[in-house]
Write a structure and sequence with these properties.
Layout (H helix, E strand, L loop, with lengths): L7 H6 L6 E3 L4 E4 L5 E2 L7 E2 L2 H10 L7 E2 L17 E2 L1 E3 L3 E4 L3 E2 L5 E7 L9 E3 L2 E3 L1 E3 L2 E4 L5 E2 L3 H5 L10 E5 L9 E5 L4 E3 L32 E4 L7 E8 L7 H6 L13 H10 L1 H7 L4 H12 L11 H10 L15 E4 L13 E20 L28 E15 L1 H8 L2 H20 L10 H17 L11 E5 L13 E8 L8 H6 L2 H13 L6 H4 L53
Helix pairs in contact: 5-6, 11-13
């Protein structure tokens, strides 16, 4: 197989270990980290202590090292040394022969063959002619991320009296729908592929993890489900990202936090601290010459929840505090370091229709670090509203040993809008908003009842309003900022219902970041100096949808299925899923601006 190239960002967000990739001549499943090889001179470590410590907590470690994906190999072969690159395994192992036959009923059909039936050039002989083959597009998978070949012989014979005669994939219609595709055996057995979608039709999962060259060692027992290799639900990377923020952590905090869970959380007196220094080598080595008093003061601060450390705070809380604390623009400002943000003077964007905006901050330089920690299939798992990943999520492993994590660092720019907490509080207690929130939550609960394994929680009306406003503003600002809409991304800052963290913190960050030059053009910051114009245009985009009145008049979902969004569709607020932190879920433009069906629940009154 010839070498194919993927960008580093693609290996984190789209084509990580366990993903299935179509190549010109074959299909592969990207291998686990054990098959990611580096030239000794090309190992690139990614340094971001805040992210490393948080990921370490997920895996039960103090921290985990992070590395960039290996670079493309150079055309130089060194004896005894593997070239750098990402490995892959051929998958699936069943193929369709690219030669059309006619069945006795005059239906088009193609031979369905296993890899062992191919010659050494990966072709299949038909009437002494070598015919090319393509991988079958159907595989089996379970909700834990396991994947494997469908046992087609067992499927077509319904598990009884299996034979080893030739099989075909037969088309009995012209739509390409599963109901038109049949598996047919020469013995006369036949079965519609649509039946593979029925519960239990593909049997129980055996824990197969072909990306780790591990086919049956992990106990599973989940029902297998039909999965189309190239479908959008075949792979959802679980990525945790942070924006690098200058840390004000003291030396004592820096030493205490990595060992907090394992040692320091149990210390509640100076005597216990002194004892730990005497008998625990890790504690003694970490603290060095630090005084007991300084260390114990830090322990008390962390225990009381008052630590200002970047590692101790939730991901988004620190970012929000730092963005809100940006100083005003001044003549002669020079953007330096990994993070540089300045507040835009209110006189440059003030408008009665924007009274709920408290602050606009231009982020001229920023560094984002994103790390891949696992993946899911069929349904995505996102971080919570504070940017933290849940510890008990069933994610598929990207390596057998979890010794390191792949990550990328991107540099870019953005604009941050802080929303008045008082304005949000006053809006949230009005009857129309309460009524709309109840409608959305009922629909969400109905959706949850049909997805019992989902970890989603209802985020509340304030989050949905901010999220929808962010989408509208991204659509508006992309028209002039020089970046395509798919290059812009969002981070929503809002408190979780029932939690004290980030209470009264509301804002949105729209940014672009890239490992290449795309994130350093400066045009997003420049366009954001006209934020008033873009915000008013966003209101216009939200007021009317090309699918109105259908879009604005109801919560779009089957009555029996529920929905995660309200007045939202591809005609108004949906954007690229790679730009959205919630995969285009939890959106409702009637909470942002008046629509033709509902006008009294809107936060903004343009």
């Amino acid at each position: 197989m010839s070498r194919q190239q993927l960008r580093a960002n693609q290996l984190i967000h789209t084509f990580g270990p366990g993903s299935m990739v179509d190549l010109p001549a074959s299909s592969i499943i990207v291998a686990g980290l054990e098959r990611w090889s580096y030239d000794n001179s090309k190992v690139c470590d990614v340094i971001e202590p805040r992210l490393s410590a948080k990921i370490g907590k997920i895996f039960g470690r103090k921290s985990l090292p992070m590395k960039c994906p290996p670079p493309s190999p150079e055309n130089v072969f060194v004896q005894g040394q593997r070239p750098s690159g990402v490995g892959g395994y051929v998958f699936p192992h069943w193929f369709i022969v690219q030669y059309v036959e006619l069945s006795p009923n005059k239906h088009k059909r193609r031979r369905l063959v296993y890899k062992d039936e191919l010659n050494d050039r990966s072709r299949f002989l038909v009437d002494d002619q070598a015919r090319s083959v393509v991988p079958v597009r159907f595989v089996r998978a379970c909700r834990k991320g396991h994947v494997g070949d469908i046992q087609w012989r067992a499927f077509v014979h319904r598990g009884e009296d299996m034979c080893f005669l030739p099989m075909w994939m037969e088309e009995r219609g012209t739509t390409g729908d599963l109901s038109d595709i049949w598996i047919v055996c020469q013995c006369g057995a036949n079965r519609c592929v649509r039946e593979a979608t029925h519960q239990g039709a593909l049997g129980k999962c055996n824990g197969s993890r072909p990306w780790l060259a591990d086919f049956d060692s992990e106990n599973c027992g989940e029902d297998n489900r039909l999965l189309i290799r190239t479908a959008s639900n075949a792979y959802f990377a679980q990525v945790m990202s942070v924006i690098s923020i200058p840390d004000t952590m003291s030396k004592a905090e820096e030493k205490v936090l990595p060992l907090w869970e394992s040692h320091f959380c149990k210390i509640d007196s100076l005597e216990k601290l002194r004892t730990a220094r005497d008998i625990v080598p890790d504690v003694a080595n970490a603290l060095g010459e630090l005084s007991d008093g300084d260390v114990y003061a830090v322990i008390q601060t962390i225990r009381e929840g008052k630590s200002v450390s970047a590692v101790a705070k939730p991901v988004k809380e620190l970012e929000f505090d730092r963005l809100c604390g940006s100083s005003s623009e001044a003549a002669g400002d020079k953007a330096e370091g990994d993070f540089f943000a300045r507040e835009l003077s209110r006189s440059k964007w003030d408008d009665p229709r924007l009274a709920a905006l408290e602050k606009v901050v231009l982020v001229q330089k920023m560094r984002e670090v994103a790390a891949l920690i696992g993946f899911t299939r069929f349904e995505p798992v996102t971080s919570d509203l504070l940017g933290e990943l849940e510890l008990n999520v069933q994610r598929a492993a990207i390596s057998k040993h979890n010794n390191w994590i792949p990550a990328v660092e991107n540099r870019g720019e953005g604009v941050f809008l802080k929303i008045s907490a008082d304005a949000v509080a006053a809006w949230a207690i009005t009857d129309p908003v309460i009524q709309r929130a109840e409608e959305l939550e009922r629909s969400f609960q109905l959706w949850r009842s049909n997805h019992p394994n989902s970890k989603q929680v209802f985020p509340g009306a304030a989050y949905i309003m901010l999220h929808t406003f962010s989408h509208l503003l991204i659509s508006a600002i992309s028209l002039e900022c020089g970046y395509p809409l798919s290059s812009l991304r969002e981070r929503i800052y809002a408190p979780m219902l029932g939690l004290a963290e980030m209470a009264n913190s509301y804002g949105i960050l729209i940014y672009t970041s890239s490992s290449g030059a795309e994130g350093t053009l400066g045009s997003l910051v420049q366009a954001s100096r006209s934020i008033r114009k873009h915000t008013l245009r966003a209101f216009e985009l939200g007021a009317l949808c090309s699918n109105d009145p259908v879009c604005s008049s109801s919560i779009h979902a089957d009555e029996d299925a529920g929905s995660l969004s309200g007045s939202a569709c591809h005609g108004c607020v949906f954007i690229s899923e790679t730009s959205c932190e919630r995969f285009n879920q939890f959106l409702d433009r009637s909470l942002v601006v008046p629509t033709i069906d509902r006008g009294n629940a809107a936060f903004f009154k343009p």
